[in-house]
């Protein structure tokens, strides 16, 4: 019994501390008021009613009068005027006397007001009281269990929000996810708007040139194309979020089902390419950086640059020409039963990634090797290998993982070309096939779900970082 | 003790620009020789191709001389610490390789011949090289059944320009030093600037350099020019990249007069799918169109799309990034969050969506590629502006009463441009790849226009029988993209203050 009340008290104290911290940020303050609106409404009325005890206001009047009696205002006025005259003299500008006085007056008023408030607060402190503001009032109430239980139901959302934000790491994850949701909705709006303002008529393309006006109208009605922009947009957003985009224009198949059927192969090939890139590129980058400007370094960096410059589809064609047509080692087109057929697409898709990662690894390593802590490690008497593996590689990998995350996104996008070359029916070639109509729900679904996948991957990488990298961790803890 | 000496020796060799360039040259030259060797034997007919074989022999000879020169330079450096005059004279022998088209050996020969190389000398040399290669490529048209009406007059003008440029090069080699030149040299500079209308931008760079060194009294400006371009011209790969880009640009301009467009677009049923020959240097496609002319005309589109779709987002993204970075807080948050939406969609998918909506043609292609790359430029610019706007010169400008507008455009942007230029150079290459990839998918340039991606798409259907239709345009794309990447790397090294 005793421990549970203690724990309850702890929770209330935590809520209070967190409330006080969050109160300093204007935006959080508004969100808290919004979420706990009924609680705040009643409390504020009560607060105003209670505040009639006007010690603070009378104190301010007192301080004001005493300062004016001292002649503080006139002194300030003279000071500011003098400063202004000297400032204008320096810049060689001409200002009329009236203007000067006016400027000095505003400055004086500002400063006077500030001084009065500061003095009044000081006097309050001396009397052992603080200025009663709404937030102080609220945080003093919050620790009282009775108040907490009464307001629990109407203020549930607000309390949940405060508890969520009391842990900086949870707060970071939550905000990151929230941003992702907004980005995804933004992507839907963007892609949908682009397709909406398209001058093409899908109806005419599908029914053919002989389509009558009634047929076109019926088609548009069937797919909701006759609705106004905003309601179409709303349908698209809810469709994306509830995984229901209806049927495609051509072939009348369920869009989500066909996208889900095509996603696995694209992801598999992209992931295999990623694995290939990391396994090849990271060691090469590290070795190159340990022997900068050697023959080995030049050769590999030249090959890497070449890898960045080769268009995917050309590389694919050359591979087919050599390995399928001339040597007949590997099948030219992809078939799910034959695992050999996946080798060429993986290499082609992964080439550019391998090249960038190895270049990035090298430059990141070169940067790290010249850092002070590496010199310290060497000065401690560690041997080369220990310095390299314990101190250099770990730190050099931090930016590389982010870059891999970003490049992986580009790779999913670029998969369309590779899929076309090797005749793989993945999501990329699906979008390309559908764009000639243009089949709006299919294109929208394909593009947005790829964007969502990429965003989620980047979120996971960011969160992992926040967990692993001490620098980011300490940054998160600062409010 | 011995190891100490070894390290010093290694250092001497590494610091010598001639030795490193010479090693680079023989390796690349050997690679080219090997490629010719592998291609000179036809396995199906068991016969040697005489043309490729003679090319192999010529390349092999110059590669051999190059290896010998490399060894001689090495010996000179280790014994006397400098390259001897007699070794430098061998450059004249290597100069002959210009007739084999081996640009690596020629450029090395020029740099070996002159001991103190100013950036102007390098510009002059590459200017002449560009002109020479343009004339020889255009001259291949002489073997065609007919040439364009303007061919003769254009060739005469080109040759005259080249003669003038050779004279200018000799004068530059004699009278230009690192910090000044004779005043009368500026009279050569002006006609040189005029010859840049052929698209030969080396003439532009050279003319500008001469004008500045001859007329300007501002020594710091000359020094800045000399160090910056000195770094780029000493970097063999980046200057070769620049050479190839300018060459491509120049050939796009000159081909208007020296190439016949009808050979590239009109069907010729008498010459379907011909193997490469002297009349059709890269063969003909399934409509009898000359592949060589098509690739030359395709360069124009790749360059235009590449440049425009880089400059447009660089300006838009740069401006957005600069405002976001300078004003910070709410402006920053709003701009960058909106751009995050664009950033979340992979560039090529966004391009596909835009083209799906508005149709496939060059304008839409440029718009589609531009929109996708706005956020990366904005991010680069923002990061730089955040750094630069904390410098003291910005504070002092503010203290002097400059408006925000003038601070942004006079102080902040000029000082954060360097990374943007590097980024732009590197992304032109990817724009070229994206253009041809989209054309390959049938989503880029209209199919009847000779564009590298379109040519490749057509060639891919004849992969088994006439594979050269797919190989040559691909090589053109790679060469151009590789050049942009090399130039971008060189620019980064030249502009990075950390490497000073």
TrEMBL record, chain B:
Domain ABC transmembrane type-1: start-end pairs: 299-488
Keyword Membrane: yes
PROSITE patterns: ABC_TM1
Residue stretches spanning the membrane: 21-39, 51-71, 92-111, 123-143, 150-172, 184-211, 239-259, 301-326, 338-356, 469-488
Keywords, alphabetical: Cell membrane, Membrane, Transmembrane, Transmembrane helix, Transport
Membrane association type: Multi-pass membrane protein
Similarity comment: family membership: Belongs to the binding-protein-dependent transport system permease family.
Pfam families for the chain: BPD_transp_1
The UniProt record lists the keyword S-adenosyl-L-methionine: no
Protein name: ABC transporter permease
Cross-referenced InterPro entries: BP-dependent_transpt_permease, MetI-like, MetI-like_sf
Subcellular locations according to the entry: Cell membrane
């Amino acid at each position: 019994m005793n421990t549970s009340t203690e724990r309850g008290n702890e929770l209330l104290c935590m809520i209070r501390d967190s409330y006080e911290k969050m109160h300093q940020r204007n935006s959080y303050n508004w969100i808290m008021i919004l979420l706990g609106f009924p609680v705040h409404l009643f409390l504020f009325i009560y607060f105003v009613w209670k505040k009639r005890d006007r010690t603070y206001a009378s104190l301010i009047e007192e301080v004001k009068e005493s300062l004016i009696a001292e002649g503080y205002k006139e002194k300030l006025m003279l000071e500011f005027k003098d400063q202004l005259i000297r400032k204008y003299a320096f810049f060689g500008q001409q200002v009329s006397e009236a203007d000067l006085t006016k400027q000095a007056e505003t400055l004086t008023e500002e400063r006077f007001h500030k001084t009065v408030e500061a003095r009044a607060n000081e006097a309050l402190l001396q009397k052992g009281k603080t200025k009663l503001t709404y937030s102080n009032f609220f945080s003093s109430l919050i620790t009282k269990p009775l108040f907490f239980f009464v307001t629990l139901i109407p203020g549930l959302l607000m309390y949940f929000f405060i508890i969520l934000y009391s842990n900086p790491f949870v707060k970071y994850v939550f905000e990151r996810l929230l941003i992702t949701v907004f980005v995804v909705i933004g992507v839907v709006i963007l892609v949908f708007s682009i397709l909406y303002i398209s001058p093409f008529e899908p109806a005419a393309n599908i029914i053919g040139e002989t389509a009558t006006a009634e047929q076109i109208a019926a088609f548009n009605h069937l797919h909701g194309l006759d609705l106004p922009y905003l309601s179409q947009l709303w349908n698209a957003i809810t469709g994306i979020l509830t995984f229901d985009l209806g049927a495609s224009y051509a072939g009348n198949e369920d869009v989500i089902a066909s996208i889900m059927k095509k996603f696995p192969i694209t992801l598999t090939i992209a992931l295999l390419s990623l694995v290939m890139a990391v396994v090849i590129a990271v060691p090469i980058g590290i070795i190159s950086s340990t022997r900068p400007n050697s023959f080995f370094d030049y050769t590999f960096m030249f090959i890497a640059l070449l890898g960045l410059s080769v268009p995917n589809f050309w590389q694919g064609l050359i591979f087919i020409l050599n390995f399928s047509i001339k040597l007949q080692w590997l099948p030219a087109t992809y078939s799910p039963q034959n695992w050999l057929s996946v080798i060429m697409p993986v290499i082609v898709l992964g080439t550019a990634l391998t090249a960038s990662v190895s270049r990035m690894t090298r430059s990141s390593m070169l940067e790290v090797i010249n850092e002070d802590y590496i010199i310290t490690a060497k000065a401690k008497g560690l041997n080369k290998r220990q310095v390299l593996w314990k101190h250099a590689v770990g730190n050099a990998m931090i930016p590389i993982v982010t870059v891999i995350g970003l490049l992986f996104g580009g790779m999913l996008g670029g998969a369309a070309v590779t899929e076309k070359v090797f005749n793989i029916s993945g999501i990329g070639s699906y979008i390309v096939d559908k764009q000639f109509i243009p089949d709006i729900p299919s294109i929208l679904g394909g593009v947005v779900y790829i964007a969502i996948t990429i965003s989620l991957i980047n979120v996971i990488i960011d969160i992992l970082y926040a967990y692993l990298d001490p620098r980011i961790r300490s940054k998160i803890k600062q409010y | 003790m011995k190891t100490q000496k070894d390290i010093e020796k290694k250092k001497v060799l590494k610091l010598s620009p001639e030795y490193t360039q010479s090693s680079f040259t023989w390796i690349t030259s050997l690679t080219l020789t090997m490629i010719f060797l592998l291609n000179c034997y036809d396995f199906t007919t068991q016969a040697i191709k005489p043309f490729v074989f003679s090319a192999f022999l010529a390349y092999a000879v110059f590669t051999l001389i190059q290896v010998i020169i490399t060894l001689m330079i090495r010996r000179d450096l280790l014994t006397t610490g400098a390259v001897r005059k007699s070794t430098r004279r061998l450059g004249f022998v290597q100069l002959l390789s210009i007739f084999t088209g081996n640009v690596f050996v020629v450029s090395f020969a020029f740099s070996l011949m002159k001991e103190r190389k100013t950036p102007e000398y390098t510009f002059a040399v590459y200017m002449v090289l560009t002109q020479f290669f343009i004339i020889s490529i255009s001259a291949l048209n002489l073997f065609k059944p007919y040439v364009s009406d303007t061919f003769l007059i254009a060739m005469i003008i080109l040759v005259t320009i080249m003669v003038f440029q050779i004279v200018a090069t000799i004068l530059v080699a004699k009278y230009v030093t690192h910090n000044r030149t004779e005043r009368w040299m500026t009279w050569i500079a002006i006609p040189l600037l005029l010859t840049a209308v052929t698209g030969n931008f080396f003439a532009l760079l050279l003319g500008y350099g001469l004008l500045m060194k001859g007329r300007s009294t501002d020594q710091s400006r000359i020094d800045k020019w000399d160090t910056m371009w000195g770094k780029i011209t000493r970097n063999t790969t980046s200057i070769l990249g620049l050479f190839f880009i300018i060459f491509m640009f120049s050939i796009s301009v000159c081909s208007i007069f020296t190439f016949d467009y009808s050979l590239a677009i009109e069907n010729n049923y008498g010459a379907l799918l011909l193997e490469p020959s002297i009349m059709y240097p890269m063969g003909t496609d399934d409509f009898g169109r000359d592949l060589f002319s098509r690739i030359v005309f395709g360069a124009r589109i790749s360059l235009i799309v590449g440049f425009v779709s880089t400059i447009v987002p660089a300006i838009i993204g740069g401006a957005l990034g600069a405002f976001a970075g300078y004003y910070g807080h709410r402006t920053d948050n709003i701009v960058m969050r909106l751009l995050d939406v664009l950033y979340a969609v992979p560039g090529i998918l966004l391009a596909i969506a835009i083209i799906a909506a508005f149709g496939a043609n060059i304008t839409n292609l440029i718009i589609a590629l531009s929109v996708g790359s706005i956020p990366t430029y904005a991010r680069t610019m923002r990061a730089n502006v955040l750094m630069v706007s904390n410098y003291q010169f910005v504070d002092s400008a503010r203290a002097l009463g400059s408006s925000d507008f003038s601070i942004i455009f006079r102080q902040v942007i000029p000082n954060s441009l360097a990374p943007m230029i590097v980024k732009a150079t590197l992304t032109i290459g990817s724009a070229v790849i994206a253009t041809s990839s989209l054309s390959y998918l049938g989503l880029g340039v209209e199919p009847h226009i000779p564009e590298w991606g379109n040519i490749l798409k057509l060639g891919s259907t004849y992969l088994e029988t006439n594979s050269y239709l797919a190989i040559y345009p691909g090589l053109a794309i790679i060469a151009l993209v590789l050049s942009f990447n090399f130039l971008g790397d060189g620019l980064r090294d030249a502009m990075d203050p950390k490497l000073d």
